[in-house]
Amino acid sequence: EAQRVAIKARSKSRNRSASKTRNHSVSRICAEDFEFGETLGEGSYSEVKRATHRGSGQQYAIKILDKGHLKRKQKLPVALAEKNTLVKLGAGHPGIVHLHWTFQDEWSLFFVLDLATNGEMQTCISRLGSLSTTCARYYAAQIVDAVEYMHSKDVIHRDLKPENLLLDDAFRIKLTDFGTGKLLEPSVDRAKSFVGTAQYVSPELLESGETSKSSDLWSLGCIIYQMIAGRFAFQGLSEYYTWQKIKQLDYSFPDGFDEEAKDIVQKLLVRDPSARLGVGAPGSVNDRQALRSHPFFATINWSTLWTDPAPPPE
Ligand code: ADE
Q1: Which of 66, 114, 145, 159 is the catalytic position?
Q2: What pLDDT shows up at residue 27?
Q3: Sign of CA dihedral 86, 127, 266, 247
Q4: Of all protein residues, whose CA lies closest to atom 3 belonging to ligand 1?
Q5: Looking at residue 182, what is its pLDDT?
Q6: pLDDT given for residue 143 in this prediction
Q7: What is the pLDDT of residues 147-160, one digit of tens each?
Q8: DSSP of 190-215
Q9: Is residue 40 within 6 Å of ligand 1 at its C-beta?
Q10: CB of 167 closer than 6 A to ligand 1?
Q11: Are 245 and 251 in contact (CB under 8 A)?
Q12: Beta strands in 27-162 (DSSP E)
């Protein structure tokens, strides 16, 4: 037994020194490989900068997280969870920001992400006031498709909102910010300690702190409403009053709101999470196909959704 332990220890130390050698001989990607440009966004523990990879000329968005800050606020596990979620989602879907590499230096963690050159959908809505029904339909379909992929990988976003929906160079959406995401694994349960952005948070999260895939569908309802109405579905004078309105399902549609859009929103903004459109088990009457087949999406060609040109922003 002693011999076995000794062999194990030797082989461990050999592995360590081998990987050390590897690190010195084969250069790993690092901050010096990029030329950093303007700041694209800022969060409480991070900022996102435009960056050009010197070797290839390829442009990326690099999320830089401050290690000292993360440690002090005990947010290292959150950063790690974000990385794990992005790794799990991989490059499997065009509507989700892809993590290309991660690296770190003494002070920061770096996440090299797809660059979405047309920024946040929130900016687009603010600039235009609201979106045409055609435009809103196109974006809603892309969100549905990206969210379904994410859910198929057992990831819940939990903070879906127009600030987290980026637009790429072709004005297609890229879902980002998985810092609040949850991997559906019994070992990682942060569900009860998290509340998302007030206006998009689901009643079940407010009432019992519980989230499921269905909470993302509630947020989808809020986003469709906002794109078309140009204002939040639920908005009180403070976060508290916003939450009251959500719990009471206290919202109304402005005049002229498209009837089919109204119907889909009404089927998503349902208090019972198990009754929302699209949450049913595959094959049931309320499954993901029911969401895709809703009359609001009648003109959407789901098989060319990511290659069709985006409708002009209006
Ligand atoms: N802001 C935050 N993340 C971004 C990204 N990946 N691309 C462009 N802008 C961003």
Answers
A1: 159
A2: 77
A3: positive
A4: 48
A5: 66
A6: 98
A7: 999 999 999 999 99
A8: -GGG----GGG--HHHHHH----HHH
A9: yes
A10: no
A11: yes
A12: 34-42, 46-53, 59-66, 99-104, 108-113, 155-156
